[in-house]
Amino acid sequence: MNKIRKGDEVIVITGKDKGRRGTVLQLFGDDRVLVEGINVAKKHQKGNPNAMPPLEAGIVDKEMPLDISNVLVFNPKTKKGDRVGIRVSADGSKERIFRSSGDTVDI
User: Fold this and answer.
1) Range 66-77 average pLDDT
2) Could you tell me the CATH number of the domain that includes residue 30?
3) Chain-centre distance of CA 35, in angstroms?
4) Cα–Cα distance between 75 and 45 in angstroms, integer?
5) Considering its fold, how many domains does the chain have in total?
6) Is 1 a member of any domain?
7) What average pLDDT score do residues 64-90 get?
8) Quick check: is 4 in a domain?
9) What is the mean pLDDT of residues 94-104?
């Protein structure tokens, strides 16, 4: 069970975007994560009229992946980033919890 999932709200703890929050768009394996509006880079793009949808030439802003160790799941109660643990309930199902308070992580 992954501790960070697609759709989680995360906060960046290191790097040029430290302190910014965003939503996880995609996970790349177990070590990289793509966050909406974070780690944006300028990319030069060549036009392609045959692509669907057609690509226009120019300089575009593109979100780049971050290392998963540089983000924490945002805890709305404490308004801070929090580590996530996994608790196995009595019936054998797993649930994600915040380490500081023990509350379940709501998606």
Assistant:
1) 95
2) 2.30.30.30
3) 4
4) 37
5) 1
6) no
7) 94
8) no
9) 92
Distance from C-alpha of 43 to C-alpha of 62, rounded to nearest angstrom = 7
pLDDT in the model for residue 56:
87
- Could you list the residue range(s) of the whole structural domain that residue 65 is in? 9-46+56-98
Place of tokens 């690509």: 55
Kindly report, residue by residue over 14-52, the tens digit of the pLDDT: 999 999 999 999 999 999 999 999 999 999 999 999 998
24 touches 7 (CB < 8 A):
yes
Q: What percent of the chain has pLDDT over 70?
A: 98
3, 10, 37, 92, 98 from 73: Cα distances, Å? 9, 4, 16, 24, 9
Edge-first strand listing for the sheet containing 66-67 = 66-67, 32-35, 21-28, 9-12, 71-75, 80-82
Residue 73 counted as domain residue = yes
Residue in the structure block whose two tokens are 């983000």? 71
Within 13 Å, how many C-alpha atoms sit on residue 2's CB side?
18
Please compute, for residue 37, the number of CA atoms within 13 A of its CA located in the half-sphere on the CB side: 9
| pTM, entire model | 0.84
